[in-house]
Task: structure prediction
Amino acid sequence: MELERSLQSIKQRISAAALAAGRDPEEITLCAATKVQSDETIRAAIAAGLTVCGENRVQELCAHLEADAYAGAQQVHFIGHLQTNKVNKVVGRVELIQSVDSLHLMQAIDKQAGKLGIVQDILLQVNVGGEQSKGGIAPEELDELAGQARELPNVRLRGLMAIPPIALAPGDNTHYFVKMRQLFVDMKEKIDHNKNDINCLSMGMSRDFEDAIAQGATLVRVGTALFGPRPAREV
Result:
């Protein structure tokens, strides 16, 4: 019951933030960050009405898939750092890879998708805060990587993702979200081959998703606000 109440509260906050920004709440997708959550917790969240799950770690993604923990969800996304040697465990098993941050990784995804005879949807991750501890390309590298996506037949660019610095207070990350929105708009204007496919701006997490929505986010990734503090990982 607590999980169901948390989910409804987050949905209500998303709706209120969208309406306050003059947007349709239906434009916003809630992606639950299910990092270190159990199969049972994921199943309970889906039963409560969750439709999109996002996994950070390949090993956990594979384990949950094998346990059929995502049954009933509409989509599963990969939202963490992806190594090229693990691409074959992710491509074709998730609807969207949100964390593509190099040509090398994008080419590996394209190659694996080609083997499977599919087109894999991706987002380009931008390190908008310039933090060395986080993945993502620098904003000035975006145009080149977005253009290179055009040359890969088994990859479909859907938009951008960002993980700004931790917000300590409401409004702290607004300037990052404004920058991401402009990067998104500029990128879409420069692309002519799949402009209509580029409709996802993934930004905003538990502490700042309302600010992200105010600045144009179409997808927010929420973990702690939904599930509570993460349980310790088993050793």
Summary: The chain has one domain: 2-226. The mean pLDDT is 95. The longest helix spans residues 2-20.
